[in-house]
Amino acid sequence: MTHPFEIELETTLPASPEQVWEAIATGPGIDSWFMGRNEVEPREGGSAAMETGGRRAEALITAYEPGKRFATRTPTAEDGRFMAFEYLLEGRDGAATVLRVVHSGLLGDDWQDEYDALRRGWPFHLGTLRQYLTHFPGRTAVPVFAAAPTGPRPPGDVRAALARELSLSLPVAVGARAHAEPAGLPPLDGEVVWADDERFEIRTADGLYTFHQGPGIALTFHHLFRTGTEGAEDAWQRWLTGLLA
Fold first, then answer.
1. What confidence tens digit (pLDDT) does each residue in 1-10 have?
2. Angle, in degrees to the nearest 10, between helices 232-243 and 155-165
3. Distance CA 103, CA 108 (A)
4. Residues 243 and 149: beta-carbon distance below 8 Å
5. Is the pLDDT of residue 94 over 80?
6. Per-residue pLDDT, 86
7. Coil, strand, or helix at residue 102?
8. How far apart are CA 200 and CA 222, in angstroms?
9. Cis before 66? omega within 30
10. Residue 23 CA, distance from chain mean position
11. So what's the pLDDT on residue 179?
């Protein structure tokens, strides 16, 4: 049985509509704050694709009005499920833009858990978008993803292990300073800019680093605004796997 849902959020971003459009409607822009590696065909009727952890998802672009409106819709599954995304932009004086996001569709049997995860995730993603537009304007990032099973460990124990490796104390708090020296990677020195019960994010001079713990799995998804990122994804995968071994 499917269940309809809709999540709507609005935020004012410190960027022009043109800058926000580049961030939400181009592959390199989406790579710099959202999830996965993204491709966008710039036209209504074109395709938008996201690849995360070896899984590729495609959607149809249903609206493409540069600087104003961008919308996509995934194919309808056999059981009727689909997801639709709509971004509406409105410029404000002083190089600011109001962005309204509407995420809707039909969810399956586990709709309550899935809806709760989506509802909790969107404020974080929009926070990352704000960090990107504020601190890395005009730049694009290389997305880096890693995942590792946590087995029967409680999420709190996983969070404690992540925090310990990043020189953070619990509870992880916004404004705290983080430091780590992962093998095969440059040292990480930065500030916690987001912290909730499931994830925390660190901003450094050259990236946005997110660490997420959930039932049975831990994830890292980072956005690296530097050169020389070859091998970074493999190195972060080794770091996460070794931490949870």
1. 789 999 999 9
2. 120
3. 16
4. no
5. no
6. 98
7. strand
8. 11
9. no
10. 12
11. 98
The two structure tokens encoding residue 89: 């932009």
Closest CA to 245 of 144, 167, 151: 151
Q: What one-letter code names the amino acid at 200?
A: F
Q: How far apart are CA 197 and CA 155, in angstroms?
A: 9
C-alpha closest to that of 127 among 230, 201, 217: 201
| Tokens at 56, concatenated | 């590729």
Amino acid at 117: A
| CA-to-CA separations, 36 to 32, 161, 164, in angstroms, rounded | 9, 24, 26
CA–CA distance, 189 with 202 (Å, rounded to integer): 9
Nearest-angstrom CA–CA distance, 129 and 24: 9
Q: What is the DSSP letter of 76?
A: P
Helix (H, G, I), strand (E, B) or coil at 165: helix
Residue that is written with structure tokens 């992540």 in the block? 162
Three-state DSSP state, 10 = strand
Give percent above pLDDT 90 in the chain.
Answer: 91
Q: Which two tokens stand for residue 112?
A: 């309550």
Distance CA 128, CA 28 (A): 15
CA dihedral over 49, 52, 54, 55, signed as positive or negative: negative
| CB 48, CB 57: distance < 8 Å | no
- Bridge partners, 180 (sequence order): 188
Q: C-alpha angle 113/84/198, rounded to 5°?
A: 35
Q: Describe the crossing of helices 17-25 and 111-135 by its angle, rounded to 10 degrees.
A: 130
